[in-house]
Amino acid sequence: MNNGREKPTSGEPSRHHSRRRFWHRVQRWWSTSWIVDRWWRFDNWFFNWWHPPSGSESPGHGEYGRSRANRLTRAWRRLQRRIKASGPLNRLSVRLWRLRDWWYPPAKDGYPTARHYGRGRRSRFALAWRWVTQRLNQSAFGRGVVALYARFCDWWYPPAKDSHPTAGHYGRGRRSRLVLARRRVVQRVRQSAFGRRVAEVYARAYEWWYPVLDGSYTSHGYYGRRRKSRPVVAWRRFERWVRHSWLGQRCRQCLFRFSEWWYPPFQASDAYHPQYGYGQVSRPVLAFRRWNRWLRKTWVGREFGWILDEAISLFSFAQGELAQALSRRGIQRFLSRKLNIAALAVLALLAVAGYKYGTPYFRHYVEQRYARQAERFMLKGDFARACLRARQVLAINPDNGVACRVNAELADWANSPLALYWRQRAVFLAPTATNRLALAATALRAEPPPCLTAANTLDEIAPELQFNADYHLVAGALATKLDHLGDAEQHYALALKLQPDNPVTRMSLAVVQLQSRDTSLVADARATLELLNADGKLGILPLRSLVAESAAAHDFARAECLSSQLLTNGQATFDDRMFHLSLLHDAGRTNFRDFLRDTQQRAMQQPLYIGELTAWLNQSGFASNALAWLQEMPHQVSSRGFLPLAQADAYVALGKWKDLETYLEAEHWVGQDHVRIAMLALALRKEASKQGSALAWDRAVRLASDAPTALGVLAQLALDWGWLPEAEQVLWRAASKVPNQPWPLTSLQDLYIAHRDTAGLRRVYQALMQRDPNDELARNNFAMLSLLSGKDLPTAHEYAAELFARKPANPVFASTYAFSLHLQGKTKEGVEVLRALKPDDLANPAVAVYYGVMLSAAGEAQASKDYLDKSNKAFLLPEELALVTSARKVN
C-alpha cells in the first residue's frame, strides 16, 4: 500500500534521498575530522585526571564518575578523616560512648551488643520505673485493687443464661447491667399493645411508601433497595414519558447524529493498533494527528522531528513524576520523614514571620515609591498618572503628606472646591512654611473676603520664616483682595528687595501701584508693565494687567486698543476675547455685533467656549440671542457638555417657565440629570405647582445621592434660589453619605452662621464631635451652644469642666467654663476664672462679651461697660445678644 504516493524509480533518486545522503556524508566527515579527534582525546585526559583511579578500584569502574570519586570529593574525604582522627573529637566520642554505656546498662539476661542504640537495652529511668511498677503490683495493696476490679467486672457484666461463663470476660459477649435493663424495657414496649400498634402502623406506612410494582418481588427491598418509593416511581414514570415523547425522541436522534459526526468512523488500517489504540477519536484529535503526520513528512519535521519526540517524552516523564510526587503514597512517604516535616514547619514559620514582620516594611517601601512617582509625574505634567499614584498611596496610608500635597495641586489645577480641604490636610500632616503658604494661596482663590483661613494661616507662620519672598507675595495678594493697598504695596516692595530679578514680583507691585491716587506712581507702574510686556518673559500677563487697569479707569478707548493688541498675540485665550467683548459692550461700540458673531463662530470649536459665551449673554441681557443661537445649533452639538444647562439658564433669564418645563421634560442630561430635575422643580414652583415642585426636588435628591459632588451642586442651586430648607436637607444628606469629607458640615456651618441659627449650629458641632471625639473645639462649641439654648445642661457642664481642666490658659475654653459656672449659680468663681487670663485674651470681643455679662451679674456694673461695648465688634447669636441686652439694662 503506497498511501497515494508514487515510489521513485531506481534510476531517478528522489530529492529526499539525495539530501539524506548528503547529510550522512557531512556527519561522517565531522565525526572523523581532526577537531573531533582532538576533542575526544582532551575529554578522556581531563576525565582521567579529574577522576584518578584509586588502589582499591578496578580500572574500568567509574566511567561516568559514579565509582571513581573526583579530586574535590577525595580532598573533602581526607579533610573529614583528619577531623575525625583529631584529638578533641576522639575524646568527645569516648566520653559519649561512656555516657551511653552508663545510661543504657546491659541487662543480666541480654547480650551486651544487643540494640546498640538502647532500643533493647533500657535506660536507667525505664529500669527504675519498671522496678517501682513490679513492687507495686506485688504488694498487698496492688493485689487488693486487682481483686476488687475483678469483682466489679463480674457484677457489672453478669453472665447470661444462654452465654458461656468465660465468654465476654471484658464485656464484649457479656453485656453490662445498663444494656440489659435497656433491652428489657425495649422488649416490654414492643410486646405491649402500644408497641404492636406502632409496628402495624409502620408496616402499613412502609407498604404504602414502597409500593409493590409488577416487576418486583414482595420479599425484595425490605429496606427500600429494590422496591422504590413513590416520588422515585413518579419521577421514573415522568422520565419514561419524556423519553418516549416526540421531543425526547428527536433530542436523542440529534444527540446520536452529533455523536456519530463528532466521533467519525474511519477506514480500516493494516497496522496492529486499529483506531490508534483507542475506542473512538474525536474530530479535533483527528485534525491534530493529520497535522502531526503532515509536519513529520515535511523537511522541517524530518530534520527536527527528534526535538518533538524529546519534548513529548520529557512531558510524559514530567507528568509521571509529578503524578507520583503528588500522589497519596508520595505525600505519605514525604511526610513520613521527620526532617521533611521539620523543614516544612520551618518554612511555614518563616512565611508567617515574613508576612507579619515584612508586610509593614513592604507597604512602607511601596508607599514611598508611589509617593516619589506621584511627585515626578506632577512635575512632568502627567496629571492622570499623578492622580492614580496619589490615590494608591492614600489607600495604603491615608496620612501620607506627599499624596495630600499632590492631590491639593491637582485640585488647584482643576479649580476644584476640594483643593482647600487637601491643603488643610497637608498642613495638618506636615506644618511647614511651604505648605502653609500653599494653603493661604489656595484659600485666597476659594474664599470670599475676609479670607479668614488665609489670614490665620499666614499668622501661624513663624516670624523668622516670614522673611521670604513667597510669604510677602501671598500676604500682598491677601491685602489686595481685602483692599488694603498700602499693606499690599509694602509686602510686594519687600518681596522685590528679596528677589530683585523676579519679574512676577515687579508686575505684582506695579499692578497694586496702578490703583494708587498718586498720578506719578501710576505712570511709573504703567511704564513698568510696558517694559515687562516688551521684555516678554511674562508673556501677555503685563498686557492683561494694563487692559484691566484701563477698563477699571473707564478709559475704554485705551482699553480697547490694548485689548486688540492682546488678541493679536498667539498666547491669547478665549477669556481675553470675552473680556474684549465686555469692553465693546460697556463702551457701546458699533462693532459689538460683528465681534459677537465672530466670537460665536470661534466658540463653535469647543463646547466649553459655547457655554462660557452663553453664560455671558444670559448675564448681560442677551438671553434671547443666546437661546436663538443654541436652538440653531445641531442637536449633537447643543447636547454636549454643559450646553443644555446654558440653554435652561437662558429660559430662566427670560422667565419662560412653561417653555423651560417643556424643554426639560423632553431632555435627558447624561451625568447631569439631577440638575435637570432640580431646574424642573424650579419651573414648577414658579408656575405655582408646589406639590409637583416638591416631588421633582425629591427625585433630584435621590438621583444625586450616589455622588457627593452632585449633592453639593444641588445644595448650591438651592442656596442660589433662596431655598434654605431644601439646601439644608441636601447638605445633611451629603454629611451622612460622605462622613470622611468636611465640606457638607462646613457649608452647613456657614449657612447657620449667616442666619444666626443656634439650633442648627449646635447640631453641626454635635455631628463634628461624633465624627472626631478628639476635636476639642467642636466639643467646646457644642457645650457653649447647649448652655445658651438650655439643652442637655449636665453634659454641657461636664464638657466645659473637662476642657478647662486640660487647657486652663485657652481663653475660649475658659469663657465656656466661666459661663457654665455662671449658670450653676457660681458667678464669682466664673469671674475669677476669666480674670486669670491675659489682658490681650480678655480684649478679644468673643471673650469680652461673656466677661462683661458676668461682671454685670456679679454687681460690677462700671467694670462691665467697657467689655460690653466690645460686643459691637463680635459676632453674636440671638441668645448672646439677649444676654448683652439684659446686662446693659441692669447697668
CATH level 4 superfamily of the domain at 793-890: Tetratricopeptide repeat domain
Low-pLDDT stretches are: 1-16, 60-65, 114-118, 167-171, 218-224, 267-278
The main sheet comes to:
none
Content of β-strand: under 5%
What's the number of extended β-strand segments?
0
CATH topology of the domain at 793-890: Serine Threonine Protein Phosphatase 5, Tetratricopeptide repeat
Q: Shape, please?
A: extended
- The helix content is over 70%
Indicate the CATH architecture of the domain at 793-890: Alpha Horseshoe
Just give the CATH class of the domain at 793-890: Mainly Alpha
- Rg (C-alpha, Å): 50 Å
Rounded mean pLDDT is 79
Span between termini = 133 Å
Helix/strand-derived category reads: mainly alpha
So how many helices?
A: 46
Explain the overall architecture:
The chain has 891 residues and is an all-alpha fold. Among the domains are: 140-190, no CATH class; 282-336; 793-890, Serine Threonine Protein Phosphatase 5, Tetratricopeptide repeat (Alpha Horseshoe). The chain is built from 46 helices and no strands. α38 packs antiparallel against α39 (776-789). The longest helix is centred in the middle third of the chain and has 43 residues, at 338-380.
